[in-house]
Design a protein that fits this description.
The complex is a heterodimer. Chain A has no helices and nine strands. By secondary structure, chain A is mostly beta strands. Chain B has strands spanning 3-6, 10-12, 18-25, 34-39, 46-51, 58-60, 68-73, 78-83, 92-99, 107-110, 114-118. Classes of the chains: A mainly beta, B mainly beta. Chain A binds chain B through residues 2, 33, 35, 37, 44-47, 50, 56, 88, 90-92, 97, 99-105, and chain B through 35, 37, 43-47, 49-50, 59, 61-62, 95, 100, 104-113.
C-alpha cells in the first residue's frame, strides 16, 4: 500500500492532453515539493518533473507539473505513442528525520 | 555525464544477506547524497534510505532499520547497500539514485538496477 495515491491507469489518443493525479497528506505533499518519474519496462525511473513544476533539461515541455494543497498533478499534452509508460510521483514525508514516499504508479496507455 | 553503475544480479537463500554496490562517475561523489530504492515486480518504488558520502551520515526508512546498512568507499566513488535476514518478500530490483542537487533532494539520476532474487 503506497503512501501517495495514484490512479492505476490512464489513457488517451495521440495529440490529446492527459492528466495523472497524486494524492497525499499534510505531512508529505502538503508540506513538500513533488517529483514525477517516467519508467519503461525493464528500465530505471527517469526524472520528469522536480520541485512540483520544474523540468530537467532534455524533458519536452509537453510535460508539466502542478501542486495544490495535498495533491499534485502531471499533465502530458500532445500525447505521443512513446509516452506509453508507468508514471510515479514522490515526495518527502516528515521533517528532519523524514523519508521519501512514492505513489503506486499510473500505467499510461496511448490508444 | 553522470553515471551510476550497479553490481550484477544476485540469487540468495532465505536468511542470507546481500550487498549491492553503486559506482559513481561524472561528478564529485562526495557532493551528492545517495538514496537506495527498491521495486518489486508490478509495484511502485519503495524508498529504503539515504547516505551522505562526505560525512557518512545516513537515514533509513523505519521498515528497514535493523536490517539495512548503507556505506561508502570514497576512494573508489562507490556506495554500498547491505540487507540482511532476507526473505522472499525482499525479491526486487534495487536501485541507487543521486540527489538532484547537493543536500537533501529527491532522487534525480538513477543506476540501472540490481535484481535480487530470494529463493530456497
Amino acid at each position: 500500500q503506497s503512501v501517495l495515491t495514484q490512479p492505476p491507469s490512464a489513457s488517451g489518443t495521440p495529440g490529446q492532453r492527459v492528466t495523472i493525479s497524486c494524492s497525499g497528506s499534510g505531512s508529505n505533499i502538503g508540506s513538500n515539493t513533488v517529483n514525477w518519474y517516467q519508467q519503461f519496462p525493464g528500465s530505471a525511473p527517469k526524472l520528469l518533473i522536480y520541485s512540483s513544476n520544474q523540468r530537467p533539461s532534455g524533458v519536452p515541455d509537453r510535460f508539466s507539473g502542478s501542486k495544490s494543497g495535498t495533491s499534485a498533478s502531471l499533465a502530458i499534452s500532445g500525447l505521443q505513442s512513446e509516452d506509453e509508460a508507468d508514471y510515479y510521483c514522490a515526495a518527502w514525508d516528515g521533517g528532519l528525520n523524514g523519508y521519501v514516499v512514492f505513489g503506486g504508479g499510473t500505467k499510461l496507455t496511448v490508444l | 555525464q553522470v553515471q551510476l553503475v550497479q553490481s550484477g544480479a544476485e540469487v540468495k537463500k532465505p536468511g542470507a544477506s546481500v550487498k549491492v554496490s553503486c559506482k559513481a562517475s561524472g561528478y564529485t561523489f562526495t557532493s551528492y547524497d545517495i538514496d537506495w530504492v527498491r521495486q518489486a515486480t508490478g509495484q511502485g518504488p519503495e524508498w529504503m534510505g539515504w547516505m551522505n558520502p562526505h560525512s557518512g551520515d545516513r537515514g533509513y526508512a523505519p521498515k528497514f532499520r535493523g536490517r539495512v546498512t548503507m556505506t561508502r568507499d570514497t576512494s573508489v566513488s562507490t556506495a554500498y547497500m547491505e540487507l540482511t535476514s532476507l526473505t522472499s518478500d525482499d525479491t526486487a530490483v534495487y536501485f541507487c539514485a543521486r540527489g538532484l542537487r547537493p543536500g537533501r533532494w529527491l532522487p534525480g539520476d538513477w543506476g540501472q538496477g540490481t535484481l535480487v532474487t530470494v529463493s530456497s
